Amino acid sequence: MFETWLTRTLGISVPLVGAPMGGRAGGVLAGEVTRAGGLGLIGAARYNTPEWLEAEVRTARDIGDGPVGFGLMTWSLADDDSLLAAVLEHRPQVVALSFGDPAPYVDRVHEAGALVISQINTLDDLRVVEAAGVDAVVAQGHEAGGHTGRVGTLPLLQEVLESTSLPVLAAGGIATGRGLAAVLAAGAQGAFVGTALLASPETVGPVYARTKIVDATSADTVYTDVFDRARHQPWPSRWGGRALVNAFTERWHGRDESEDILAEAYTGDDPDIGVVYAGQAVGSVRAERPAGDVIREIAVQAEALLSRFR
């Protein structure tokens, strides 16, 4: 199997990380990714409680005998960093601090014995997280599902690889072994996988989301802030979110309506209105499959492709 900085450092067999998708990646999904040989990350959202964190990490560790970590939105810690404190109590092996400057928190994570990984969307982001002392970076491209930047994965990955001595992972548009092989061949030490797992039964969230994922094509996404505004999510304006198009985006995307009007029109219970964040690789997700099977298949296909050049 593969050997990269990621596999050597964490003692895993597959250079894949389950993306810490807030509201989708809980302990079951993280545990199954870890059990399949990768690194499972739990998405810790602003509304999660310490009790929720404890239950999710216990579940993940019961399932997967290997490393487990958390992903946090760095910008949300400025007003209240108690969620980070709760995360560190569980001694994770990795904490992903993304979407903002991690400098105020890196030492605390290191003191707890964990690595710090930060997703970045520009070279300016790279300089910020390098100065903060992170252990590795994830070049997250515009193709990615959920909140992301505006530069494509391949252009960004090339720039980042040429501009840092830190280990670099890739994210955005990677849903098959072909995608993993491509970024490894370019010099990445591994990849984050999110959309490829969204139809797996281990994900958290409404059942209709899995059906929508399977039925979607790569052209069925939109980069928008309309769901943040409708749900009063205070994301910084530089990060929009890539989601599946639906009746809500068709009506409201691109319109300068107030958050109150959008909130009144929005309901997450309606399959035609509720948000389903997903990346452009959604067209490669054609069935509801266990997360472990997805991870193992990506790894096997990537190894077969790369072995042609050895």
TrEMBL record:
The keyword Protease does not apply. Gene3D superfamilies: Aldolase class I. This is Oxidoreductase. Pfam families: NMO. Signal peptide: none annotated. Coiled coil: none annotated. Keywords: Flavoprotein, FMN, Oxidoreductase. It comes from the Bacteria. It comes from Rhodococcus coprophilus. Its EC number is 1.13.12.16. CDD domains: NPD_like (cd04730).
